[in-house]
Amino acid sequence: MMIDKNKGLPEEILNLPESSFEMVQTDEIKDEKFKTKPIGFFKDALLRLQHSKISIISFWIILSIIILALIVPNITGFTYTEQDLAKRNLPPKIPGLENIGIADGSRVLTNRKKDSLSDTNRYPEGSIIEIVREYESKGVAMVDVKVDAYALAGIEDDVYHWFGTDYLGRDLMTRLFKGVRISLIIAFFSVITNVIIGVIYGSICGYYGGKVDMFLTHFAEVLDGMPYIVITILFMILLGSGMLSIILALCITGWIGTARLIRAQFYRFKGREYVLAARTLGVPDVKLIFRHILPNCIGPLITRAMIAIPGAIFSESFLAYIGLGIKPPEPSIGILLSDGQSVLLQYPYQTLFPAILISVLMIAFNLFSNGLRDALDPTRRGEE
Amino acid sequence: MAEESNYILEVKHLCQHFSSGRGKNKLLVKAVDDVSFGVRPAETFGLVGESGCGKTTTGRTIIRLYNPTSGEMYFNGRDIAGPMTKDLRRYLTDNIAMIFQDPIESLNPRMTIEEIVGEGLRIRGMKDKDEVRARVHEMLEKVGLTEEHATRYPHEFSGGQRQRIGIARAMIIKPKMIIADEPVSALDVSIQAQVINLLNDLKEEMGLTILFIAHNLSVVKYFSDRIGVMYYGRLVEIARGDDLYRCPLHPYTKALLSAIPEPNPITERTRKRIDYDPERDHDYSVEKPTMVEVAPEHFVYCSPSELEQYQKQLGL
Question: Which ipTM score applies to this complex?
Answer without folding.
Answer: 0.83
